Amino acid sequence: MNAATHPIRPRPDEAARLAWVDVAKGLCIILVVMMHSTLGTGEVLGGEGFLHSVVEFAKPFRIPDFFLLSGLFLGRVIDRDWRLFADRRVVHFAYFYGLWVLIQSAFKAGSIVAGAEGMSGKLAAFGFHFAEALVVPYSTLWFVYLLAVFSVVTKLLHRRVPPAALLLVAAILQILPTSGMPELVDEFCERYVYFLGGFLFAEWIFRFADRVRAAIVPAMAGLALWAVLEAVLVFTPTGIAALPTIARLPLVSLGLGAVGALAIVAFANLMVRAGGPVTAALRACGQRSIVIYLGFFLPMALTRSLIAKFNLAAPDLALGVGLASLLVTAAAVILPLAFERIVRGTRLDFLFRRPAAFHIAPEPARTAALRPVTGQA
User: Fold this and answer.
1) pTM of the predicted protein model
2) Are 144 and 93 in contact (CB under 8 A)?
């Protein structure tokens, strides 16, 4: 846990070591987009396909691994002054959150202002909606919101609370039933332990990654064993309505999240060791993960609507839903990347790159700080 008190120092081969982080981020963001695309497509088409099983399999580790990766490099800035820290870990995420809440809301303005009378009433309804989004994480953007919250909470507590005690409390919060609480509280309790774990165990995770790359056969055997255990726990019912599978049970959920996050770390390192176009594609997605995360909602919705409107799904419902979900996922990943490349360096660059006017730390201080794992376009 010494990463909590000693920032990680880069090694000469850091560029190679960080390749696996981008690959892991790329895989996670694709799984996140796949989840939204698949569940939405299945609802529109009225059935389930093969990707529904993939989504269910990934549920225990998909978001935990993303948060673990996001906490890995927090140690590099957590002991900096509050101005620099806030620039990197609060203002950065707040900028993209606020901007894309407005963008997403603009596309949903009709439903947001429905029932309001007159222009003033519609503006008031929209303003209330935006104000509420500043308190309650909005739509798919809740992840960006929580990254800022997690960062601030960790900076406030890591020098005041022993790491073991802080981790224990975070684990207890994850185990407690919080589904009836406000969304921000519920998501905080369920996810914070993984972000904190990435921060506290960063040095150990990097050593684990090094060992995986040096011991390919044992790592592959361990991954195979994990995949079998994951599938058994995810698809074995409990008979309890609120907790339909063993994977949803308290403690089991926590364990699967932590072990699954490490499994993705191992998988990413094996992919880096193997190389090839798939690894390159995953790494490219990871390096632009925030671009995909911010922009996937529109191409996802449009592609899904076109498939439903023109009845493009295969005659076999299960196969049709699966193929349609795959197509929607691909569009939701590729199109934001293509759009970002088109607008890069233009006046629309602010959509994915925070302008200088929205920085609060001096330029030399900003460039001296190493980039965080998540949130850099």
Assistant:
1) 0.89
2) yes
